[in-house]
Amino acid sequence: MTKPHHGLDDAPEEVKLAVDLIYLLETNEISPETALKALEIVKSDLIRKQEVSEI
């Protein structure tokens, strides 16, 4: 028997993570402005960590 396909089963990991993050933000009623500011902080942090790990 084959496994049924559920929308995101075959999606790339980044899409699955994005969907989870959107759900988290919406269920906690985070404003788009606050979410975007927080995501910029997260992006900067991840870029810094990636640069350090490449050394």
TrEMBL record:
It holds the Pfam family DUF2496. It comes from the Bacteria. NCBIfam families: PRK11038.1. This is Primosomal protein. It comes from Veronia nyctiphanis.
